[in-house]
Amino acid sequence: MLPHQLELLSPARDADIGIEAINHGADAVYIGGPAFGARVNAANSVQDIARLVQHAHRYHARIFVTQNTILRDDELEPVRKQIWELYDAGVDAVIIQDMGLLEVDLPPIQLHASTQADIRTPEKARFLQDAGFSQIVLARELDLEQIAAIRAATRPETILEYFVHGALCVAYSGQCYISHASTGRSANRGDCSQACRLPWQVTDSQNRIVAHDKHVLSMKDNDQSANLAALVDAGVRSFKIEGRYKDMGYVKNITAHYRKLLDELLEQRPELALGSSGRTRFSFAPDPRQNFNRGSTDYFTHGRQQDIGAFDSPKNPGQPIGYVLQVNSNSVDLMTDDHATELHNGDGLCYFDLHNNLLGLQINRAESLGKPGQWRVFPKDPVAGFKDLRRDTVVNRNRDMEWVRSLERPSAERRIGLWLRLEDTAEGVQLVLNDADGFTATARLACDKAPARDATKGEQALRDNLGKLGTTIYEVEHPDIATAQPWFIPASQVNALRRQAVEALDSARLKGWKRPQRATPVEPPAPYPEDTLTYLANVFNHKARDFYAKHGVQVIAAAYESHEEENEVPLMITKHCVRYSLSLCPKQAKGVKGVQGQVRAEPLTITHGDQTYTLKFDCKPCEMHVMGKLQPHIKRRGVVPAGERELVEVPVEFYRTASR
């Protein structure tokens, strides 16, 4: 990828979803490999990934495989072998966070630094570039000024990647240990228990309740639709959609949405270029509101905002469509806000009860009442069970079955422009194809050249038969019949000539595809920005320790998963501030008469069941630390591979401190 190209990077839970992401305009797709991909339930075989690679490379799109968990010593060799298998399958890059992998024998495959590597500063980004990473996934919390500073500190060929859509982890990626401390399931090893989506009770230092059963660590979903131009100006070139657990409909819709926005931006910026080949047309109007979302936020792109949390519910509230007219014994009558709105069997509706809890209602049958906007819906469950459902209750729709069905069908067409020229040869004719990327192919046909009886109809017949490219990835931009005169050539021979030429062009494109090259680390090894690393560096194997020692680090602590941190430590570091979101920040009180001096920078406590953590606030960098300890029953057992939940002893040895 070149510095002037823009890359739309889509997620794939499996190869079929990845293929549809390419069809809907993705320039690249990231997908989990057989193991070690930071999503326990999103693994794929090398064979399936090879199938995805073959499809993507037809459009000169790229496939990245996630290998971004932290690794035990005994896992380094299996991962090394797996990366070689992926390289042999044609994969373009692997995304990693464990620096131990840079100390083993890897193929010459491009390396991307995962967001799990916690890349927030120009110094960290420049170091990773100098260590051999070609693409760097920035922290989601960065604002435009911080992104621009990283761009200024790195080489133009180092691609900056930024999440533009999807679910948000409340913690800095790679800096959350609550899941492991409480359940033994490590987020750094792809098995997060998502404590951030739980309801918490918040109390102050005097045990007064500040918030009751609020999802104070649950963020709204990321949506940077309005910020793409500003992100380009700041230096972002790869625009990443979150969602390796998401379904086909989500990937189709969100990929199409950003494809359209980036295409509009490219039309306005002639100095920029597509990141792959072909133009995409859709049979639907992309709409991010139709997919699961917790409300939208652009997070910290323009600085700190107060309304970033989905505190009432981590579920999908959908979009308001109307209100309740009447609750019947086995049905509910509704009035839609827009009389053009239609309800369907299987639609999902929801509403908030009097305690602001989100409750769902699935339609078993929907009937129009014959008056504008009025519908009678028969829920799947008994009406009597719907708490606080009454007249004038606002109703949202969070699943539109007509929309769902529209995306279950073929919904996009991606084609590469083709210039076609039919010419005379001594033995007959030849067909020359030139595509939009400059690839050329020629096919020849030996035939008798008899003039067509009707020159106009004969020429049109040749154009029609040569232009039948419906099952290919091409579309004719300009057909040129450059023979001495329109010849009569049987349709079967013209079709065979066209197929031969297209096959030759396909072959030329695949041969012409150049796999991205791995960057060469600078020599001597670049010094790491710090000389001491705590557990926050996630060093979990001796190769990673060797890597940091080689780069000048003097003291290297073991990862939290090694169970060497016995005291209370930050289990989550986040830019999100509960005090700020609850209007309790001392900075918010400045200048407010009668308030200044009464709001103090004191800890808060959050509790859910038997889990209790202290919230401490580091106001200089404006960060929140969730403090806690490793549960004793977790400390007694070793660290097992993600997905293997049985309590087994796995000894872990590590040096508390290590020098060069």
TrEMBL record:
<protein>
    <submittedName>
        <fullName>Putative protease</fullName>
    </submittedName>
</protein>
<dbReference type="InterPro" id="IPR001539">
    <property type="entry name" value="Peptidase_U32"/>
</dbReference>
<keyword id="KW-0645">Protease</keyword>
<dbReference type="GO" id="GO:0006508">
    <property type="term" value="P:proteolysis"/>
</dbReference>
<dbReference type="GO" id="GO:0008233">
    <property type="term" value="F:peptidase activity"/>
</dbReference>
<keyword id="KW-0378">Hydrolase</keyword>
<feature type="domain" description="Peptidase U32 collagenase">
    <location>
        <begin position="395"/>
        <end position="510"/>
    </location>
</feature>
<dbReference type="Pfam" id="PF12392">
    <property type="entry name" value="DUF3656"/>
</dbReference>
<dbReference type="InterPro" id="IPR051454">
    <property type="entry name" value="RNA/ubiquinone_mod_enzymes"/>
</dbReference>
<dbReference type="Pfam" id="PF01136">
    <property type="entry name" value="Peptidase_U32"/>
</dbReference>
<dbReference type="InterPro" id="IPR020988">
    <property type="entry name" value="Pept_U32_collagenase"/>
</dbReference>
